[in-house]
Design brief:
The complex is a heterodimer of chains A (about 800) and B (about 220). Chain A is of the alpha/beta class and about 800 residues long. Chain A contains 30 helices and 25 strands. The longest helix of chain B is centred in the middle third of the chain and has 27 residues. Classes of the chains: A alpha/beta (about 800), B alpha+beta (about 220). Chains A and B meet through helix 13, helix 25, helix 26 and helix 28 of A and helix 2, strand 1, helix 4, helix 5 and helix 6 of B.
């Protein structure tokens, strides 16, 4: 029975889903196998009976018994995926034929069962493939829709949605599970979920599992309040209670139906049941259907950028976009990218957030690197670290798509311009991924002189976006800043363009401010005044260095004057913070009278250490300061550690503190046209399968403090990446860490691979499970029992 | 959370810790307690079959392999499977902290390890309330101890649905994610003279291997 009419009726009348397959299987008189999907083949009559019971109870949609039918969960199954899926669909259709009625078969996709990167080791592409494998098994003539359910990670949910969208034309129902703190287990709130799912244009969205209808009410209300898409709710039969060691649920069918009617009152379009709900529960719901209708009024969804853990309202005052993750104009970042080190970018990200950046622009264009690869690495690592939404900055569509695809949020693309080729290439991406776009007022003819001409290009962009189904609110028009020193008469044209755009359209505006002062003295002053004028003209966002003099000051003051900071509360708090510089220093009661370099290093007193080193640099040659002052101080600290007078945290604190001193030495040498050559290069990696890298990172700090260059290959690293690094980066020493017995096997393989290709590279190993003996056994040259030991090994190998 | 425990994780004996580190430990402990909500879950099963290297529990599709777990459960009529976790937020905190300060990251790591052990203790306290006067609990026995294979993590997580309820998963190398998680098996046995010797902790009397001097050679070690 395949009537297509239900799609038109979606959101017009209430539909009913079935209840809990798992609960029904548990209650059946059969042994539950480790892979419940095998029952589709081994006991089809049991599964068919469950489907039939739900159909008789009044369900309009039944979901196939395929929740765990994925490569990972079927590893130990006797049957291939295709066979399990076919059997599941067959059995559902058999039930529909027998029980009759206008019932639709929905293919069920559950979570993979592994954690996505960067927290876990499952990467986006693998997750996508695992979902795709299921989708291509489906016969679209026998399935009405796909339900992706019980997802706790929005990133995994996106991979599943894209796999269905790109490999079928089936409607998508997407539901996530929330905990009692109204977030998913990986930290997504209901509104952010709605925005990200609507960005990917699912057909139905909602919530299932984890909670009963009472505990879910607030989450459902929050979803309904912002969703333009029909909402589905499938709650558990209350909360689990353990009775005589048996898990049961707290609500009976009558109470459950009472509670669920409040969802129907609130306007959900579809209801069904999750854990603990039997056909009786669904029947009680269906009995109430005539009284309710889904919500019909159109929601005002607003304009939000999202990370996986927060939404940023673009309509709520000025938004500051940090520009500093860009290798052009940042030598340190350029070096780091070339070496495959993404830690420095993380530091730059944190600094900008600290200064007040609300969005971070990421640009990875550098001729010598694989731009797309670096972009992917940064998107992956930032998504675990930062709540801040991102803006992807590239001239290559492939790089932008790679970033949009993986990013578990709603991002900005930087940038599209008025050239037809640019619009044709990029607007489809903006549409597909639900992103926002920076649109430059230039086209084939270059940057126009007058405001009117720029408006004309903006209008062309707006019109083209609409053709692709993108509302103008999603465009951030950049009226383009020209330098006052070269095109003085056009500076005000930019501001005029902003004013006119804001009067005529609902678009947002943005600018790259600092260009205006290029070639003039005292640039910050020019920037600040121009920025102030632009704010007055109605500028919504700016791409800027948030740490630059006066920028955040200007924003804070402007928001008071523009009546966006009621009672100047924000401004006063900001002023308080400014008065108190970050007390990274020591609390007063710990002030120590010992002001030697060693004592200062141990206390982590960066400013004092830098003072001391500055004085030395005035008296001695820079290299002598390293060899005669810094290294001896570190050696003293190392000995104290060995004598157990101090312990690891103090050792590491000293190693972190010495970094600033080395920077001073480098500056001095650079002035004298010299440079500080590293003592040698060490590659470090946490081996494949191991995703904890704290030990490896401690080793890195120690080695760097002694002046070694460290190539940090990260965690979960296989042999190939290590061999490539050795080939390309003059590595003389490799450090490998493994935490568990299961990963030492991989360590041994890596050591063998290194030995086969290079006979002059030394290998040191460390980690919780290793011992001196064990290290010898797997063929390592050195065993390091702690981070300090790695320095002694490096000294021995590289001196 | 007891500060002494955190300090031991960091490698100090309590009297050796410098004032600055102690103060920072206190601050980080506070942050952890304010921001991380531990979650846990447990379920009880009847012991079904027992042999000296294999135990099965009624209603579970997998068995517990190995002499160590069999010995551990030899007097247990019932068995609790439990899991406790600090969740993804703890993992993110640790990543962030490593990007900012490794010294703080070390301290945080120790705080989190202590905190998750504490959560497991609380879970065990709840279990204790469910047993009768005449019964006692064995200590918590985790996959990886002795010859009890780590692979059982995966079976336990799937059967008890801890991936759904607690968000605990394992990698292909059987490493738990989030890492600050504990999965353990506790037996319920009759109080009697024979069982008196057993303590409510590791057979060595220690609570944690990381701070143990014998960790290099210990058979019980994870």
């Amino acid at each position: 029975m395949m009537s297509i009419a239900w799609k038109e009726q979606l959101g017009q009348e209430i539909f009913f889903f079935d209840g809990a397959m798992g609960t029904m299987i548990q209650a059946a008189d059969i042994a539950v196998p480790a892979v419940p999907e095998e029952l589709n083949i081994d006991h089809p009559q049991v599964i068919q009976g469950i489907h039939e019971a739900f159909i008789r109870a009044g369900a309009n949609f039944i979901t196939t018994n395929t929740f765990g039918a994925n490569r990972l969960k079927l590893e130990k199954s006797r049957y291939p995926l295709q066979r399990i899926i076919n059997a599941a669909v067959d059995v559902a259709h058999a039930a529909v034929s027998k029980a009759g009625g206008d019932v639709h078969v929905v293919y069920n996709i559950g979570p993979i069962g592994a954690m996505m990167k960067p927290i876990g080791s499952l990467d986006f592409d693998t997750a996508y493939e695992i979902f795709k494998e299921q989708v291509i098994c489906l016969d679209p003539m026998r399935i009405d829709a796909v339900l992706i359910e019980t997802m706790t990670d929005i990133s995994e949910m996106r991979a599943a949605i894209l796999a269905v969208k790109e490999n079928s034309t089936l409607p998508i129902f997407a539901t996530m599970s929330f905990t009692e703190d109204e977030r998913t287990l990986t930290g997504t709130d209901p509104e952010t979920m709605v925005r990200i799912l609507e960005g990917l244009q699912v057909d139905v969205l909602g919530v299932n599992c984890s909670l009963g209808p009472v505990e879910m009410m607030e989450i459902v209300n929050r979803i309904i309040a912002v969703s333009k898409t029909p909402v589905i709710v499938q709650a558990n039969a209350g909360l689990p209670v353990c009775i005589d060691g048996e898990t049961q649920f707290s609500l009976n069918a009558g109470k459950y139906a009472m509670a669920v009617t409040s969802f129907m009152e609130a306007g959900v379009a579809l209801v069904g049941g999750c854990c603990g709900t039997t056909p009786e529960y669904i029947q009680k719901l269906v009995e109430k259907q005539d009284r309710y209708q889904p919500i019909k009024e159109k929601r005002q969804s607003g304009n939000f950028l999202c990370s996986s853990t927060m939404s940023l309202d673009l309509d709520d005052g000025f938004v500051l976009i940090g520009e500093r993750i860009n290798p052009s104009g940042n030598k340190r970042l350029k070096e780091a990218f070339k070496q495959g080190d993404f830690q420095f970018a993380t530091k730059v990200a944190f600094e900008q957030i600290h200064h007040g950046a609300q969005v971070l622009d990421i640009n990875t264009s550098l001729p010598q690197i694989d731009e797309e690869e670096v972009m992917i690495q940064l998107v992956d690592s930032f998504s675990g670290l930062l709540d801040t939404p991102l803006q992807f900055d590239s001239v290559k569509a492939s790089v932008l798509e790679a970033a949009l695809r993986r990013y578990a949020g709603i991002a900005i693309v930087n940038s599209i311009n008025g050239k037809q080729s640019s619009m044709d290439e990029l607007f489809p991406l903006i549409k597909k991924y639900g992103a926002y776009a920076v649109c430059l007022c230039l086209d084939e003819k270059g940057i126009p002189h007058t405001a009117e001409e720029r408006i004309a290009i903006a209008e062309k962009l707006i019109k083209n976006a609409k053709k692709h189904g993108i509302p103008e609110e999603r465009l951030l028009i950049d009226a383009l800043v020209l330098t006052a020193s070269a095109q003085q008469e056009e500076v005000m044209e930019t501001l005029k363009t902003i004013r006119i755009l804001k009067e005529r359209y609902a678009v947002k505006t943005t600018l790259g401010v600092s260009n205006v002062s290029y070639g003039l003295p005292y640039r910050p002053l020019i920037n600040q005044v121009f920025f102030t004028l632009a704010l007055g003209a109605g500028l919504d966002t700016a791409i800027i260095n948030p740490g630059a003099e006066g920028i955040v000051d200007t924003i804070q003051a402007f928001q008071v004057l523009n009546n966006q900071d009621p009672g100047a509360v924000e401004y006063i708090a900001y002023n308080e913070r400014k008065k108190k510089p970050d007390s990274q220093g020591k609390p007063a009661e710990l002030k120590n009278q010992d002001n030697s370099l060693v004592a200062r290093l141990l206390q982590g007193d960066e400013q004092e250490v830098e003072e001391i080193i500055r004085e030395y640099l005035e008296q001695k040659a820079a290299l002598a300061v390293v060899d005669k002052v810094l290294i001896p101080a570190l050696d003293t600290i190392g000995l104290q550690y060995e004598r157990q007078e101090i312990f690891l945290p103090q050792l590491i604190r000293a190693a972190e503190t010495v970094k600033g001193a080395f920077e001073l030495v480098k500056e001095k040498l650079a002035k004298d046209h010299g440079s500080l050559e590293p003592k040698g290069t060490v590659a470090l990696a946490t081996v494949k399968g191991d995703i904890h890298d704290i030990g490896k990172n401690l080793v890195k700090i120690m080695l760097e403090s002694y002046g070694y260059r460290v190539v940090d290959l990260g965690k979960d690293v296989g042999g190939d990446a290590i061999l490539t690094a050795i080939r390309n980066q003059q590595i003389q020493l490799v450090g490998l860490s493994a935490l568990m017995t299961t990963t030492v096997v991989g360590m041994e393989e890596i050591i063998q691979a290194i030995r086969e290709e290079f006979n002059d590279v030394k290998i040191m190993v460390g980690g919780a499970v290793l011992t001196e003996e064990y290290a010898k056994q797997i063929g390592a040259d050195f065993y390091c029992r702690d981070a300090r030991a790695s320095v002694l090994v490096a000294d021995q190998v590289l001196q | 959370m007891r500060i002494e425990e955190v300090i031991r994780y960091l490698g100090y004996q309590n009297n050796q810790v410098d004032q600055q580190t102690r103060k920072r430990v206190q601050e980080v402990m506070q942050i952890v307690e304010d921001t991380i909500d531990p979650r846990w879950d447990f379920q009880s099963f009847e012991r079904h079959e027992w042999s000296k290297n294999r135990v099965t529990l009624r209603g579970l599709p997998f068995c517990l392999q190995g002499e160590s777990i069999a010995k551990h459960l030899q007097d247990a009529s019932r068995v609790f499977l439990m899991a406790a976790t600090l969740g993804v937020e703890a993992e993110r905190m640790l990543m962030r902290m490593q990007a900012i300060s490794m010294t703080d990251a070390m301290i945080l790591d120790s705080c989190l390890s202590t905190y998750v052990e504490g959560a497991a203790d609380q879970c065990q306290e709840e279990i204790k309330k469910l047993i009768s006067e005449s019964e006692q609990l064995t200590f918590r026995f985790s996959p990886g101890y002795g010859d009890f294979p780590l692979a059982v993590h995966q079976d336990m997580i799937r059967s008890l649905r801890w991936d759904r309820t607690l968000g605990i998963t394992v990698t292909s190398s059987m490493m738990m994610v989030p890492s600050k998680s504990v999965i353990a098996i506790i037996g319920v046995e009759e109080k009697c003279d024979k069982n008196k010797e057993k303590k409510d902790k590791m057979p060595c009397g220690n609570k944690s291997c990381e701070v143990c001097k014998l960790k290099e050679t210990c058979n019980w070690k994870k």
